[in-house]
Specification:
The strands form four sheets. The protein has a two-stranded antiparallel sheet. A two-stranded antiparallel sheet has the order 2-3. The chain is globular, with a radius of gyration of 15 Å. The protein contains five helices and eight strands; from the N terminus they run βααββαββαββαβ. The chain has a single domain (2-146), classed as 2-Layer Sandwich (Alpha-Beta Plaits). It starts with a strand and ends with a strand. By secondary structure, the chain is of the alpha+beta class. A hairpin with a 7-residue loop joins strand 6 and strand 7 (119-121).
Length: 149
């Protein structure tokens, strides 16, 4: 299964990964300006830049082989997509108990600030092709390749 890897030596903390992630999950996924100027609510990015100068790197769900969030989810909202292997969240089933957030040892699941009682996590932009964060990182600090946990 493919995984997204952060190469902190190339990350400058520009947060464009966060910007493009929010945009691709908005009402206007193909128009950055409209995504931020016309969307009623701009979605929570599913990637967060951790920064402690001089070090910075993008952090998102690792789509673990043995996901703690999947085991912790009380409603079954967290599930593994059979085709891609990605761990996804069914917003309709999510009740906002946040146990997946607590269970994730990597901090890759966030409370979705744009929706009440739903979590936001990386979905590999499965409906968009390549992940927006990887495609739009100006320094190539994010890469996607085959890998394990």
């Amino acid at each position: 299964m493919k995984k997204i890897y952060a190469q902190e030596k190339y990350c400058i903390g520009c947060r464009l990964c966060e910007v493009y992630c929010s945009a691709v999950h908005s009402e206007y996924p193909n128009d950055l300006v409209k995504a931020f100027n016309r969307s009623k609510i701009v979605p929570t990015p599913r990637v967060k830049v951790e920064e402690d100068r001089p070090l910075s790197f993008a952090m998102q769900c690792r789509h673990c082989d043995e996901p703690h969030c999947l085991k912790a989810c009380i409603t079954g909202a967290m599930y593994r997509d059979e085709e891609s292997g990605a761990i996804l969240n069914d917003a309709e089933r999510c009740v906002g108990c946040w146990t997946c957030i607590v269970a994730c040892p990597y901090g890759g699941i966030f409370r979705d600030e744009s929706k009440s009682k739903v979590v936001a996590k990386c979905d590999y932009c499965l409906d968009q092709g390549d992940p927006a964060c990887v495609k739009n990182c100006p320094n190539g600090a994010l890469k996607i390749e085959e890998g394990g946990e």
